[in-house]
Structure formats: structure tokens, C-alpha cells
Amino acid sequence: CWKVWLVLQLFESGQSDASNDQLNDLFVQSVKLFGRQMAQVDNYVRFFQIEFTNFIIALRTQGYVRHTIDGIKIIRQPEWFSGYDQKRRFIMTSGHLM
Asked: What pTM, to 2 d.p., does this model score?
């Protein structure tokens, strides 16, 4: 859930970039919103920090964002599927997903 939330925050905000401070704020918000779901994990804040960083790196690797000195710049928007069949066709013909 938090990855979908993060994608919506980053890509649906209408901004073309996000500063390091904005990314940090999104991280803090994500821990507040979704941290309780990970209560069984020792030091879930550290877990979120690692996963948050890995997800931003994955977005970069797949060409959605580019790191800048001040944060990230959005290069392209993710594709949203209109239905199950469109998503299934994409999965069957594409080598990777976001």
C-alpha cells in the first residue's frame, strides 16, 4: 500500500521534481501512515528507511526519476491500467514492472 501511496504522492502532485527535504517529509509521512502495519518488525523505522531508499533507486533504475543534487527529477509518469486485461497483456509482453 505504501508504494502505491508514494507513487501517487510523487507522480500525481503535478511537480516535476522533489527536493531531498520533500522526500524526507514523504518518508516521515509514510512511517506515520503505514508503520503500524510493520509493528512486528524490530526497528520498523529503519526497515521503512531501507525500503523507501530501495524503491526510489528502483524508480531511477527503471527510468521514472533521475537523481539531482537537490533530490529527484521526474522523467516519465507510470502507466496506469484501465482494467485487468490491459494489465495482464502488459505483464505477458513486458520484461519488467515498476
From this structure: 0.78
